[in-house]
């Protein structure tokens, strides 16, 4: 517990630092690192790093059960992540010079990386055939979308109007939702939400988590409005809290389902008391894109 608390405090300080310093550039670099680590953790979990080409399950204790540190699919994913985030940072820099909006440009980059990334992974598949079976190639591409691409919306949210606060809401929604869902579930929980996957989570707890998230986001809006008299953010921020809380719970369950499928407790041991990057950011990965796109609709595009 002590390790978990200390790690949680350190993570919170890093989150605040990355959001405040460097006008988003530091945050973009941090998300690139987190995305790369998350990609590697997913590849390890989903069997991309297991050297077995024919798709069969190797005997327990055999050499084939030992995971590799990397392979061509993983190296390609890391390179694609680096190119993608370098492109996002470049777009931010260029737009800062001539005050153009970046929403459509960054979305175009994302679509290009997703489509060209698929082609690149398939190129490795066919050019090295039969080194990798199709399951490992698809798992590698899935891991690229799941971690690096989805996490990029944490950085992109920072560039929206009132971006520092939208950025804070991404983490606030998931954290407050967890705490309030636990409290409401213990007090009122009767109906299981996902009985096989997570027996302790209840529908009543989920409702409590969503309400807690919306209230906390409304408080943030009121604080902002106190200093910016022209801002009208209570309703937009409450909507962001509603959306963020719902999808953060889905993200938590999705990450748990993957771990359950592969019979592991944690994705890694990078963060003492928390596990890996995917264990710590499982809710954030789902909340960030929905909060970002909802923020675009309610607040406008980046400036």
What's the main sheet like? 2 strands, antiparallel
Give the N-terminus to C-terminus distance in angstroms: 42 Å
Radius of gyration: 20 Å
Number of E-type strands: 2
Order of helices and strands: HHHHHHEEHHHH
Strand content: under 5%
Strand order of the largest sheet: 1-2
Which stretches of 5+ consecutive residues score pLDDT under 50?
53-63
> How much is the average pLDDT?
86
From the helix content, strand content and strand pairing, which structural class follows?
mainly alpha
Tally of individual helices:
10
What's the structural blueprint in terms of helices and strands?
Layout: H1 2-20, H2 25-45, H3 72-98, H4 103-127, H5 134-157, H6 163-188, E1 192-194, E2 198-202, H7 203-227, H8 234-261, H9 277-280, H10 282-299
Antiparallel strand pairs: 1-2
Helix pairs in contact: 2-3, 2-5, 3-4, 3-5, 4-5, 5-10, 6-7, 6-8, 6-10, 7-8, 8-10
Structure in words:
With 303 residues, the chain is mostly helical. Helix content is 72%, strand content 3%. The chain has a two-stranded antiparallel ribbon. Strand 1 and strand 2 form a beta hairpin. Helix 5 packs across helix 10 and helix 8 (234-261) packs antiparallel against helix 10 (282-299). Residues 53-63 have low confidence and may be disordered.
Which keywords apply here?
single chain, 303 residues, mainly alpha, two-stranded antiparallel ribbon, 10 helices, 2 strands, globular
Put the structure in a nutshell:
The protein is an all-alpha fold and 303 residues long. Helix content is 72%, strand content 3%. The radius of gyration is 20 Å and the shape is globular.
């Amino acid at each position: 517990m002590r390790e978990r608390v200390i790690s949680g405090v350190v993570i919170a300080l890093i989150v605040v630092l990355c959001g405040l310093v460097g006008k988003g550039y530091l945050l973009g670099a941090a998300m690139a690192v987190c995305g790369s680590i998350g990609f590697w953790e997913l590849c390890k979990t989903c069997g991309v790093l297991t050297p077995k080409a024919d798709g069969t399950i190797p005997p327990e204790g055999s050499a084939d059960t030992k995971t590799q540190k990397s392979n061509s699919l993983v190296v390609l994913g890391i390179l694609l992540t680096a190119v993608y985030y370098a492109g996002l940072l470049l777009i931010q820099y260029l737009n800062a010079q001539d005050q153009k909006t970046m929403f459509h440009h960054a979305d175009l980059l994302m679509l290009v990386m997703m489509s060209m990334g698929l082609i690149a992974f398939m190129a490795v598949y066919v050019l090295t055939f039969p080194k990798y079976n199709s399951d490992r190639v698809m798992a590698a591409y899935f891991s690229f979308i799941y971690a690096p691409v989805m996490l990029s919306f944490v950085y992109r949210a920072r560039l929206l109007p009132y971006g520092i606060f939208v950025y804070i809401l991404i983490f606030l929604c998931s954290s407050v939702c967890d705490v309030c869902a636990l409290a409401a579930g213990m007090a009122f929980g009767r109906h299981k939400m996902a009985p096989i996957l997570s027996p302790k989570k209840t529908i009543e707890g989920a409702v409590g988590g969503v309400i807690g998230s919306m209230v906390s986001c409304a408080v943030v809006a009121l604080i902002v409005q106190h200093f910016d008299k022209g801002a009208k953010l209570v309703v937009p921020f409450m909507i962001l809290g509603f959306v963020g809380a719902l999808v953060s719970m889905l993200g938590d369950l999705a990450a748990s389902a993957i771990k359950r499928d592969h019979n592991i407790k944690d994705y890694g041991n990078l963060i003492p008391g928390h596990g890996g990057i995917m264990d710590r950011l499982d809710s954030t990965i789902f909340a960030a894109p929905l909060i970002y796109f909802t923020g675009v609709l309610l607040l406008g595009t980046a400036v």
